[in-house]
Every structure is written in C-alpha cells, then in structure tokens.
Amino acid sequence: MGLAWGMTRISVSVDGIAYVDEVEPRMLLVHYLRDRLGKTGTVVGCDTSNCGSCTVHLDGRSVKSCAVLAVQADGHEVITIEGIAKDGELHPMQRAFHESHALQCGYCTPGMIMQSIDLLAANPDPTEADVREGLEGNLCRCTGYHNIVKAVLTAAADAKAAR
Amino acid sequence: MIPAAFDYLAPTSIEEALAALSSDADEVKVLAGGQSLIPVLRLRLAAPTLVVDLGRLPDLAGVRDDGGAILIGAMTTHDELTREPLVSEHATLLAKVAQTVADPQVRHRGTFGGALVHADPAGDFPAAALALDAEMTIVGPSGPRTVPAAEFFTDLFTTAVSEDEILTAVRVPKHTGWGSHYEKFHRSAQMWSIVGVAATVRLDGGTVVEVKVGLTNMASTAIRAAAVEQQLVGQPAAPEVIASAAERAADGTSPPTDVNGDADYRQHLAKVLTRRALITACGC
Known about the structure:
Chain A is of the alpha+beta class and 163 residues long. Chain A has five helices and five strands. Chain A has a five-stranded mixed beta sheet, sandwiched between helices.
C-alpha cells in the first residue's frame, strides 16, 4: 500500500510473457495492452462497455478489457487474440472463423473469437441458441452474425470429432 | 474516455480497507468488480480522488451453508451465482436473476455485493434480495451490523452502507423447494431493465402458501409488490387467479419516465411481467 499519487507497479503475464510495469491506476487494461505492450490486436470499439471488441481472457475467463483497470490485473494472467495461435498454427477458433468467412469489416473479430473460445470452454456442445446467447456481449456493426454463429458451431463440431 | 486521475489502494485485510475508507481523501470510491464503477469513471460521471479495490481481500468471495440460510460473500461474481449448487438448491431466484445480468464477460467480473451497494433502481439484484428477505452484513469502524433488505435500499443509488463501511456478506434464508422466475424486459443484453419482476412461490398441493414478488425499476429503489402477494396467498396456483392478482402489481409504484418508456407504460408492463413471472414460478 502507498498513497503516492501517480504510479503503481504491476506484474502481469500477457500471452505467456511476464511484464513488470509502472502504470497510472486509472489506466484501463485495454490501453495497457495496446499502448504499453503494443498488442494492438485487441481493439477498442465503444466507450460504454457494450461492444465486446476488447474481450481478452483474464485467468482463463473472458472479460472486457475496457472495464478492467491494469492495476486489477496485477499478479494475474492475460491472454489476448495475439496469444492464441501456437507455433504459427491458427487457433482452431481462428481457423473456423477463417473458413466460415465469419467477418465483414473484421473490427469485432478479435473479441468475437476470444468470447467464442470462452463459450466453448464453458459449454463444449452448444446449440445455435446457446451460441447466440453466449455472444450476447459482442456486437457486430455489420450485423454479420450468421457466419459467426456458423464458425462457432463448426469449431465445436470439429473439437467433438477430435475427441 | 480515460478516467480522471485517482489514488489507488488495494488493501489485503478488512482493517486496512476500513482505514482507507476513513482516510482524509476528498472522495473515496470502493471498487468491487468494477462493471458499473469503471464505465462511470470512464464517462467521468464520478471522479474520486481515492479508489479502494476490494479485489485483494481474502474471504469475501464464495457461498457457504449457514444452517437455515446460505451466506454469500459480497465479492462473489454473478457467474459464480449461476454455477453454485447451494444457490441453485436454496435460492433459485438468485441464480435465475444472475443469468440475466448483462453478458458473460460482465458476469465474470461483476459482483453480487457490488451490484447491491450500487443500488441502481434498474439493476436486477435488489428486487431479488427483497423477494428473498436477504440480510446484509455491513462492517464499519464500530464492527459488524446487520440490515434487512427491506431497510437496505434507501434511495436512488443509495443504501444503508455509510461511506466508512463495507458490505461483506449477504445472508439469504433458504427457500428450498420454492418455485421462482425473473421476468425482465430490456432492449438488449447490455441495457438496463425497463421493468423486471422477481417472483418466488411456495406451493402445497396446488395452493400458494407463500409468495414474494420484487419489482425492478418501478420506484427510486426496488420494491415489493405487496398487494399482489396479499391477494395471491392461500389461493390456487391457476393462471386466471394469478392474472387477477397481477393486476395489482402497479399499486403504490412510482416508476420513472425516460427514453425507454413513460411511467404509465412501466405500470402496464409491471402487471404483464408479474403475471408471466408468477405463472412460470408456479409452473402452471
């Protein structure tokens, strides 16, 4: 504890790499990721915590990184859209989005993919309705939901076939 | 937008947290899950000089059996309420309400205690806390005290928790075997309830033995639909009986008029949603 106006030291793991940084307490996690670490794959889509474009995983669960302070991530693990591909191979959810052409302008895609991964982790065999409800926190301004839902169902079916 | 600058403390004990709240900072805000506070800070609707983060306090999260009640830690998340077997068994209404709050990301971070102390009249949990006759444990400089839900919500965004106090736990009497439903009318996942109705009933052989109904966004705080409860108790759980009782749902209410609807529209909605909530809760 300390009452020095200004900076707080945080230790946080992002996409498997440990960082120690001094941040202002008011800094949002999304700004820390983008402006400090250069992880611009996580985007800011709105100013009201509605759109879900900035979704990342904090200790394995999806959160909106515009509604988390960087200081709250101290001692915790963050995974962003930039940390899910392994050894040059797309994550199965990224591949499913690619193959189903689950994007139009692509701005909501990082958040959609991160939330979809969380969705399948909680419910590996979802119905279409489950997918639509599980993505209720992510908005696509192009209204391209049809192929997004198709991609998530495809990823679920692929994972089931592989089990 | 970026919040205005503030000092930040993350105490690791209740004593430290209480000391922080009694500091001479101009304006102190308590941070629980942050799903209401951080958007408010970002929009600069609030500009505290000190934020006290309860996220490092031990023992404030989780649900445990407390004999005739379940004890829910204030930092228990909405998501945990939807998955906790003690809640599903003894307070199904709470699990059902939690499932409707915002979206999965918000439910992963938002806390039960934070939502109660925020006391948004359009927030979903206060009506459920009233309907379940919950009791709030509040800790301050002079020790803990207990406040029943009926005395907890005092006005818009205002509760019995003083500036130097913290809500630590909520005691919910067991409603084992009760039917329940939360009927919520809103425009999209992230929007607040235009009106919500939290209903829980105990039936015996098709007769309503006990019934409790909480209303969201029908006054400056959540309120109970007392007239509906009085008319329905002792009656058969049948759709036409419920429909008649639900006509009393707007009695004594003073809902707001805003961009989502006029007061009289909300009074109409309250009757319709009360009927639906009770029919589902009764399974008839």
